[in-house]
């Protein structure tokens, strides 16, 4: 591929420019891990030990979930002061959530929320760059991604949702969605190219999961994606062990992909990352159909949701039986096992949603006799998938809560709400497997474990307490057939 002209800077990693950061005027500076609580100091002003701790926490807890960096390249740039302050601040905003409480008082004794402080610094610097209309770089996209992740995992807020949209737009402006197109001007080492792909698919996954959670339209057109799947495991990518692999151009229509000979197993790099992407793709497609059916029902959407239902019903035939066993397999690494469990939760969440009845008031059109869009039986089936999520979490290793996707907490909340509403309907669930009460307990305790690291889980937990206060009420199911 031809290299881009010098005036064109879509993204750059190993030779990243450095921002010019003016030294702030400080009158009295008490040192709290190197930060003053009143001044917006650059993240590089932290004491070396604090910077090392926050960086280490980032690579221990965030990088396995959202792989954006090759660790050796990042540390080499950090040593030579080549990492922009806005990127450090965005990273530290999230990693500060994992500082042990006893160390938090020691490092930031007069600062109630260092994460907000770091986020504010990163946001200001990114906005300044965007207003200056500089070419969008990979650093800009990473900062936008981390800011969106930080804000949305505080609470499911409008601001977080807007920041996710901003991250998507910057990724599109940087042409990360076209890294492997025939006319792409991107060229670089295998490590650089793979990094661009990892950043793109991380942004894509964030757009999918956040908009599924918010029940809002998605920001990325799946038919416009011209970036290959990654061919390196997350662990090898993080370690910098990247070699040129066989290009795998993805089929983004989940129905076509899951029924093609080159299914999820053949497209995976070996750790389940790509399989997780395509489980997310199924979840996105289901949410998209449900949103459309609730707004403007059509025969095409009813047909589409039936196709997705068939795929989800056949997933146990597409993937081996061993894939759905919660126990870690002998040859399976911790990272691969955790990703597999998350994928199982995603698939069960997709089936839970697809069996939930749409708004009956919108169904003015005649439905085929076998339609399940407003079916009582379909709703009863959805409850089995809510309980299946609880069964997966029942075998969830305790140490996984600190390194698993925080959006899983939203899946837990959804399953809990589904089970509670079903109980309020007066209907009885199947007696096979765990009881509804046991499933609710597992979901509730699992969500509580996420609250240690992710504020969004605390918000969701509070909403469940409100729902419990109304559990005496009765849900009207007369419009379901």
From TrEMBL:
Keywords: Metal-binding, Nucleus, Transcription, Transcription regulation
Pfam families with a match to the protein in the record: Fungal_trans (PF04082)
A Gene Ontology biological process term: DNA-templated transcription
Residue spans crossing the bilayer: none
Domain Xylanolytic transcriptional activator regulatory, first and last residues per copy: 160-236
Top-rank taxon: Eukaryota
KW Nucleus (keyword) present: yes
Main localization of the protein described in the UniProt heading: nucleus
Protein location: Nucleus
A GO molecular function held by the record: zinc ion binding
Record's GO cellular component terms: nucleus
Protein name: Xylanolytic transcriptional activator regulatory domain-containing protein
Native source organism of the sequence: Aspergillus nanangensis
């Amino acid at each position: 591929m031809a290299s881009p002209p010098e005036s064109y800077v879509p993204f750059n990693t190993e030779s990243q420019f450095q921002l010019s950061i003016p030294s702030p005027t400080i009158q009295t500076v008490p040192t709290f891990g190197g930060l003053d609580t009143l001044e917006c100091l650059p993240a590089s002003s932290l004491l070396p030990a604090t910077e090392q701790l926050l960086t280490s926490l980032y690579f221990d807890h965030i990088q396995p979930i959202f792989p954006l960096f090759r660790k050796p390249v990042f540390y080499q740039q950090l040593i030579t002061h080549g990492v922009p302050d806005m990127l450090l601040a965005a990273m530290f905003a999230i990693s500060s959530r994992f500082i042990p409480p006893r160390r938090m008082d020691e490092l930031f004794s007069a600062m109630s929320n260092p994460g907000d402080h770091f986020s504010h610094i990163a946001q200001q610097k990114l906005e300044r760059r965007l207003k200056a209309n500089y070419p969008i770089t990979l650093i800009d996209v990473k900062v936008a991604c981390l800011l969106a992740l930080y804000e949305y995992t505080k609470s499911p807020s409008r601001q977080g949702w807007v920041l996710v949209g901003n991250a998507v737009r910057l990724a599109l402006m940087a042409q990360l969605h076209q890294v492997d197109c025939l006319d792409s001007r991107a060229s670089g080492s295998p490590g650089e190219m793979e990094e661009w792909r990892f950043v793109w698919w991380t942004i894509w996954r964030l757009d999918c999961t956040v908009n599924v959670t918010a029940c809002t339209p998605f920001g990325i057109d799946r038919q416009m994606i011209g970036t290959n799947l990654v061919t390196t495991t997350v662990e090898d990518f993080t370690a910098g062990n990247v070699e040129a692999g066989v290009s795998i151009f993805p089929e983004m229509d989940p129905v076509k992909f899951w029924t093609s000979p080159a299914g999820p197993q053949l497209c995976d790099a070996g750790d389940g990352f790509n399989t997780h992407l395509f489980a997310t793709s199924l979840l996105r497609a289901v949410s998209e159909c449900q949103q459309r059916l609730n707004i403007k029902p059509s025969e095409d959407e009813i047909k589409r949701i039936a196709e997705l239902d068939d795929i989800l019903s056949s997933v146990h035939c597409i993937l081996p039986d061993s894939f759905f066993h919660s126990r870690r397999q002998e040859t399976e690494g911790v990272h691969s096992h955790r990703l597999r469990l998350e994928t199982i939760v995603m698939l069960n969440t997709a089936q839970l949603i697809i069996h939930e009845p749409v708004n009956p008031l919108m169904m003015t059109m005649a439905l085929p006799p076998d339609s399940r869009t407003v079916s009582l039986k379909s709703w009863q089936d959805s409850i089995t998938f809510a309980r299946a999520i609880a069964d997966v979490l029942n075998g969830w290793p305790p140490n996984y809560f600190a390194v698993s996707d925080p959006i899983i907490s939203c899946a837990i909340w959804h399953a809990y709400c589904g089970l509670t509403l079903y109980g309020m309907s007066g209907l009885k669930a199947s007696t096979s497997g765990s009881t509804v009460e046991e499933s609710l307990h597992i979901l509730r305790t699992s969500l509580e474990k996420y609250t240690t690291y992710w504020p969004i889980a605390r918000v969701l937990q509070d909403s469940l307490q409100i729902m419990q206060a109304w559990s005496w009420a009765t849900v009207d199911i007369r419009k379901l057939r």
